[in-house]
Amino acid sequence: AGALTVAALLAPAVTPAHAATSDTRRSPADPGAAVAAPQGQPGGSSRVGPAADGVQVGAGSYAPTPPDEITDIADVRKTLDQELYIDPSKAGEPVPTNQWWTDLLVSKYSGDMWAYPFVSSNSAAGTKLTIPTRWNSDGTAMRLEAPVTVGGTVEPSPDASDRTLADFEDGLPDGWTATGDAFTATATGTAAGQSAVSGWLGGRFLNSFSDEDGDGATGTLTSPAFTIDRSTLAFLVGGGRHPDHEAVQLLVDGDVVASSTGTDSEQLRWDSWDVSAHRGQSAQLRIVDDLRAGWAHVLVDQVLLTDAPDGLADRFATTFRAKQADALRWGDWNVSWRMPQDGPGGQYMDVTSVQGAPYEWFEFHGMTPRLTLQDGAEITDGDGEPLDLPVTTDRFEIRQDGHVFGVHAPDDTTFTRVGNTLEASSGTPYLVLSAVPEQGLSLDDLHRTAFAVPRDTTMTYAYDPAAANVRQQWSIRTDTLQGDSHDTVQGWLQHQYADATTNLRFTGATYETPRGTMRTTVGHGGWTLDYAFTGMTPIGATPEAVGDDPYSERIMREYLHDYAAKTTYGGDTYWGGKDVLQLAEYMTIARQIGATEDARTLQDTLERALTDWYTYTDGEAEHFFAMYPTWKALIGFADSYGSAQFNDNHFHYGYFALATA
After folding, report:
1. In the 3-class helix/strand/coil scheme, how is 90-111 assigned residue by residue?
2. What is the pLDDT of residues 400-414, one digit of tens each?
3. Parallel, antiparallel, or unpaired: how do β-strands 110-114 and 119-123 relate?
4. Cβ–Cβ contacts within 10 Å for residue 619, how many?
């Protein structure tokens, strides 16, 4: 974006001249190396427009994409062609390259994004939130510890051909016949004395491990007859590896034609049989447990017929698994991203993070919120008193390892806890997590402004030279998840409030950050910060003797005359940028002391150099700018010191901005 400003806005102000190119690129390793004189150098100021082969902007032009002529095209293409993780709704818009959250754009999920007081990062499991409060042992960084991970539970997305024979959600299905004591009821979780069971769907499954007898229970469970009208019979199975004894069996005409068993694991896994050879025949399913030994039990769930055996695990998965994290919207200090489910269901979670806001907003679509806590985490009310779960409430605190997270939910939301997992009521559309400070803002205070989710943030400024004052106006545009208040909590760092005159009304709540103590206000706009600024001169005063320090105009004129003979300039944006800046500075000094002829010569060289830089001609390898179409950003070539990967662009192009002005 900075390069676009230089080329598109400043180029028209440059007096057009014949494009000049240098035969030899000055090496960054040897800035003093000589370069050949530019070709077609005019004797004075020319008003002939350059021949532009690129995209015309004003009197100049840029390359529509970096051409193959540049020396490091292979490295450039790594950035040029890099996959950007952006929601399709933002396609074609310029992409920020140096924001606090830019890693979100170039990583499948993201690294740590410091929003103060929260730090968030993403993974397939969801969004991990930490509240840094302590420093490491040598005081060089704040510690990211005791996170809460926000994810969800999703509904299965069956294929149109899936026909469920049994899901065990309502107990033993009608018509199924049990013998013995192994299959008297369905289970809702791990039995007493059993290792942790996982992988079943919904609320119930079949488990022949008995609370009373453990692996001692035996018996069978047989389905009523059904017609095989699909190519595949699939199911979830776990338990002991005892073929024919702890097994799921398919009976056709009373004979066992297929059988599966567990793998000595309490994790239920998908298994399936190709039953196309029996299509149209009547069959039964029999589940067998006839041993009294170690691992002598069987786990079964979700028995179905299907013509789409591939992808069963994905379409019947109930734990949210994010495919990636795509930047969804952003403003001056806010960002939102969308995390779609990795599968066919279309479920997704939108997350909003704002620098300085003690909130993180989560909006769920087609999924139920789930929070994963740390060992020993306590669930309390706003006064720190423990809550018994399940609990129906709209707010509570999570206390773990000295960190206090607030959770804010719609009215009458029920939360249940299994181990370190909290799950909200099915279909809960949003949750807001807050960082509860030690003082100044209680859980109830934070709850009052928790549901105004920022959609855009804007800081505008104006400079009044007569008053020597810069005035900043800060505002947030919010939508309300519930209620009608658009106010939220906004934090301010020390460099914002310590040296400014403001209308900020602080709450008394503070947060420690790597950039100092953050203070907080409540509102959604109208924040005004005034900074005294007397200006800075871009040039020095007319040279003169100061005290005992000598000054010789004759020697100065000699220096200027010698420099005016310089007609070359570097080919990359760092060393070439320094050259155009020096030409501008020497030109200015020559004007100050009345060295008119040298001032004109320096100006001609400068105009020629800038016109060269601000014009692209096919076949050039340096002295031009090129568009990165995906990023919607301009990069100057030749590049140096990583500038083609957006490194140091601010001061590379600062040389050009000042020289052009």
Report:
1. HCCCCCCCCCCCCHHHHCCCEE
2. 999 999 999 999 999
3. antiparallel
4. 9
What is the predicted pLDDT for the residue at 544? 86
CB 222 within 8 A of CB 249: no
Bridge partners for 420 per DSSP: none
**How does DSSP classify residue 409?**
E
User: pLDDT, tens digit, for every residue of 139-179?
Assistant: 999 999 999 999 999 988 899 999 999 999 999 999 999 99
Q: What is the pTM (predicted TM-score) of this model? A: 0.80
Cβ pair 238, 267 in contact under 8 A: yes
Contact 234, 330 (CB under 8 A): no
pLDDT tens digits, one per residue of 228-248: 999 999 999 999 999 999 999
Residue pair 312/272 in contact (Cβ under 8 Å)? The answer is yes
Q: What percentage of the chain carries pLDDT values higher than 70?
A: 92
Residue 517 burial (10 A CB sphere; 0-12, 13-18, 19+): middle
Question: Would you say 641 and 28 are in contact if contact means Cβ atoms under 8 Å apart?
Answer: yes
Supply the pLDDT for residue 298.
Answer: 97
Which element (helix H / strand E) includes 80?
helix 73-80
135 φ/ψ angles, rounded to the nearest 5 degrees: -95, 155
pLDDT at 9 over 80: no
What is the torsion angle, in degrees rounded to the nearest 10, for the CA atoms of residue 280, residue 281, residue 287 and residue 288? Answer: -150
Identity at 454, one-letter amino acid code: P
pLDDT band at residue 343 under the 50/70/90 scheme: confident
Q: Is the dihedral of CA 111, 375, 202, 231 positive or negative?
A: positive
DSSP, res 162: -
Which of these, 339, 239, 353, 360, lies nearest to 296 by C-alpha position?
A: 239
The C-alpha atoms of residue 186 and residue 206 are separated, in whole angstroms, by 5
The tokens describing 565, both together, are: 């003979």
> Strand runs (DSSP E) across 401-446, as ranges?
403-418, 421-423, 430-435
The answer to whether 598 touches 591, Cβ cutoff 8 Å, is no
Taking the C-alpha atoms of residue 644 and residue 58, their distance in angstroms, rounded to an integer, is: 24
* Separation of alpha carbons 452 and 481, rounded Å: 6
Confidence of residue 52 (pLDDT cuts 50, 70, 90): low
Distance in angstroms between the alpha carbons of the first and the last residue of the chain? 18
Look-up: residue for tokens 């695990």?
313
